[in-house]
Amino acid sequence: MHPFKTFEGRVCPLDRTNVDTDQIIPKQFLKRVERKGFGSCLFYNWRFDEKGNKKKDFVLNKPEYAQSSILVARDNFGCGSSREHAPWALQDYGFRVIIAPSFADIFYNNCQKNGILAIRLDSPRVDELIRRGATEALALTVDLEQQKLSAPNFAEHFEIDPYQKEVLLKGLDEIAMTLTYEDEIVAYEKQHEAVVH
Amino acid sequence: MKRRNIIEKIWDQHLIHQEDGKPDLLYIDLHLVHEVTSPQAFEGLRMNHRTVRRPDRTFATVDHNVPTSENRETKDAISKIQIETLQKNCKAFGIELADIYSPHQGIVHVIGPELGLTQPGKTIVCGDSHTSTHGAFGAIAFGIGTSEVEHVLATQTLWQKRPKTMQIKVNGNLGIGVGAKDLILAIIAKYGISVGTGHIVEYTGEAIHNLSMEERMTVCNMSIEAGAKAGLISPDQTTVNYLRGRRFAPKGAAFDQAAQNWLALASDDGAEYDRTLEIDASEIQPQVTWGTNPSMGASINDLVPDPESFDDEEKRQAARKAIAYMDLKPGTPIHAIPIDVVFIGSCTNSRIGDLRQAAEVVRGNHVHEGVRALIVPGSYQTKKQAEAEGLDQIFKEAGFEWREPGCSMCLAMNDDIVPVGKRCASTSNRNFEGRQGTGSRTHLVSPAMAAAAAIQGHFADIREFTAIH
Question: How distant is the Cα of A77 from the closest Cα of chain B, in angstroms?
Answer without folding.
Answer: 10
